[in-house]
Amino acid sequence: MCAHILVAEDDPKQAELVTRYLERQGHTVRAVHDGRAALDQVRGREPDLAVLDWMMPRVDGLDVLRILRAEGRDMPVLLLTARAAEDDLLLGLDLGADDYMTKPYSPRELVARVRTLLRRAARSEPQPSSGDGDLHVGTLRVSPERHEVTVDGRGIECTPGEFRLLVAMAARPGQVFTRDRLLDELHGFSHYTTPRAVDMHIMNLRRKTEADPRNPRRLITVFGVGYKLVPADAVEQAGGTPPARRAAERPTGEQDDGNGRETAPGATHARP
Predict the structure, then answer these.
(1) How far is 155 from 84, CA to CA, in rounded Å?
(2) What was the pLDDT predicted at 234?
């Protein structure tokens, strides 16, 4: 499919190279070299996809991404970065990047990833429906058509990645999703990312949807497998999850800090 693509890259030679490869695929490409120009271009005519370099003058790529998502713009974003630290990459994903590539990268691989993101965006476009098309799991409601999530009637804000996970899990309540399956829902390139990306999204969703994120009743961990989404009252009617079972259900890498709190890999808690 041919698309309108924005390339924001401060290195003119890199921008020209990426533009040339994308144009060979029939895409229309606009190239800019700083974050302010990228924002102006998107606001003038929103592209089908944006390729954003992290390090740009005036406004960096991460701030551009943050602003675009805050404005409600949900076109796919591929983040280019020389920062290969896992925490940096997870920050980009948490802010709403759909995929990322670390420099140096192959232009042919970039074209392939753009193709996959465009294909996924086309599949996720709202389709005519005889009903409201909403997904209900207890008091959690997910509306793929309106891109809305409510819990107990209260609206919550989700990043594109978090929303995709909720749609996939809400469509099959009670089904256990492995991390690899959820990584595929997030990016389609599970061998380029780590399971911690899924854990980070789940932790954020628990903070937004659970009354007590440390004792989740909707997004449940299935020890050694992954996660499942269930109605909150299903756990409550069963009398809650015993502490021993909660400890057994933590995914690999999560620990108990001694106070009944779960920690993600690398997480620390201040001493009292």
Answers:
(1) 34
(2) 63
Tally of residues, the chain: 272
- Give 152-161's long-range contacts (Cβ < 8 A, gap of 24+): 156/208, 156/209, 157/208, 158/205, 158/208, 159/69, 159/94, 159/95, 159/96, 159/201, 159/204, 160/69, 160/74, 160/96, 160/98, 161/93, 161/94, 161/96, 161/97, 161/98, 161/186, 161/201
pLDDT tens-digit series, residues 208-217: 999 999 999 9
The residue whose two tokens read 């509306």 is 143
Is the pTM higher than 0.85? The answer reads no
Please state, for a pLDDT cut of 90, what percent of the chain lies above it.
35
166 φ, ψ (degrees, to nearest 5): -65, -40
β-partners of residue 209 are none
Give the closest residue to 90 by CA, choosing from 272, 271, 269, 264.
264
Per-residue pLDDT tens digits for 39-78: 999 999 899 999 999 889 888 888 999 898 888 888 899 9
Q: DSSP of 38-104, one letter per residue?
A: HHHHHHHS--SEEEEESS-SSS-HHHHHHHHHHTT----EEEEES---HHHHHHHHHTT-SEEEESS
pLDDT digits (tens, 9 = 90+) for 232-242: 876 444 444 44
How wide is the angle at C-alpha 129 spanned by C-alphas 124 and 132, nearest 5°? Answer: 95
Cα end-to-end distance, the chain, whole Å: 57
**How far, in Å, CA of 252 to CA of 259, rounded?**
19
Q: Which two tokens stand for residue 256?
A: 């108990």
